[in-house]
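Quarterly update from the structural biology core.
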Amino acid sequence: MSASARRVGATISEIAGTLAGMTATRTGPGRPHMGDRHVVTSRVPIPVRDALEALAERFGTDRSTVLADLAAAAVGRPELARRVRFTAAVDGEIVPDGGLPLAM
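Predicted structure, tokenized:
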């Protein structure tokens, strides 16, 4: 780099070195580790989203946690819930009335 060139930012190797030195331990406030998790994306009707948001606000958490806790109960693993305790059961399959399936 020439004497007149101005350096802006950090190099990739400097950033990688900084990241490599970071640890996974908590050093301050923030969300606690919730165990091994996998991201699952789902589209829900707006009224369902609104109800999930209301539950999340009621229990002081977020929609994602409410959905994860509900899913845990639905598959018979309520002990994996982190914030909201649900009782859920699968009643059976919904059989379409012969109409066309919704496009994704």
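The longest helix spans residues 46-59.
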